[in-house]
Amino acid sequence: MALSANAVLNRFANLSLTPSEYLAACLERISQVNPRLNALTAIDSERAVGAAAQATTRWKAGTPRGLLDGLPIGVKDLQDTKGLLTTHGSPRMRANIPQGDLPMVARLREAGAIILAKTNVPECGAGGNSRNPVWGATGNPFDANLTCGGSSGGSAAALAANLLPLCTGSDTGGSLRLPAALCGVVGFRPSVDVIAHPTRPLGWSGISVLGPMARTVDDLVLMLRVCQGADPDDPLSSEAASDRFATLPAASLKDLRIGFSEDFGGTPVDPSIRATFRARIARITPHVRDCREVDLRLGDMDRCFDILRAESFVSAFADPIKSDAAAFGPDIAANVELGLSMSLADRAWAHAEQTRILRRFNAVMRDYDVILLPTAPISPFPWTQGNITEVDGAHMGIYYRWLALTYRGSLTGGPSITLPCGRDPQGMPFGLQMLGPVRSDEALLATAKAVEMFFAADPETARPCPDMAGLAASDIDLRSIVTHPPILNGSDRSRLDPLGTAV
Fold it and tell me: How many domains is the chain partitioned into structurally?
């Protein structure tokens, strides 16, 4: 089950493994491990078995359907999957069975991927801790009592625990990067034009993007090759070469110009995380062309993000909250309340400030190929704690302020990625974040691959793997916060409950 996605597909091609055999192994692994993590929610095993049998026939005939034929994957529970329960972790949608796929999901399915399961999220994707009143909480594969991050937390946990080889995610303020860092996998926030996002509440705002998550850069690129593409309902997406990520540009560490910042312009970071980050910088510095600290005070990034995020929540949730406020948790309500307190002048300032931030970032990037930062400011905390209220003695204010290391990067509009890079002093995964220039996705991925290979050569900085055999269940039932369980009925093809028990 620890095989990479590329390795699995290679074995399909040489007929040493069939999609049916691999799916059976995944389902067995899920039945053993998911009860301790609650990473996967609705699971469509019945249709998956049929799809795997068809893929097996195609591979034996030498006629695979596409790049991912027969590969089971997980889809974030904010993203529509035809015929498979999609709840958003919200009581209002606990019986929602979409009639069609999100375009990104449709592309994956067309390439032969088997949509096996949905991955857990915070309610409506709000926050950095994947727990909700429909499915409960997701534990971290390194310690089920700790958070896996969010909002793509179920995806990160499923990958780290080797339940699935690939998973989807989305990212506004770090929802792909933060959980990937806390679970020791790779999460990529692409530029806004790369993957069409036609369900974005504000189609002309690029603060929210869709993206892939995997255990390695190579696997992530494989998935990105399928996901990328335009859609007429997303005016910010653009058509590109049909296989723009098939061949990445050459990247060599010795030619690399690195800028680095411990705190992205002054956001609070735990001293142990700073020390771990400094150690990684010290290790790579002798092997690159240049590595210098960089000033990332690009503007009033926190207030700018507050307004841009709040306006999207007002657009998506203000009317539903008016009609049924009790159906939403406090984080959704807080975002809407914040947005409703703002004026048109606030909105105009935020969009102008984001433009200024972009131009200042462009000026910085003239001297560097990438910027390195920590991904998370702290080690994972107990999932029973909704969010972090204090970092290194600084009060966080609003519940997502502790995500500033990632959401400040979202404001630049450029691509960003987090790589697993050993462990922090608490023994949990440490994520190294990389920012690239605007529209430099291919170059950033190539550089990330080179950096990944460098750190992988040393056991101290290689991707850490959790001890699943020794992983104990959380001290508190991961389902203890469920107040509105999912509605599973005859028309729902999901055949497993959130912890993997047959129903």
Answer: 1
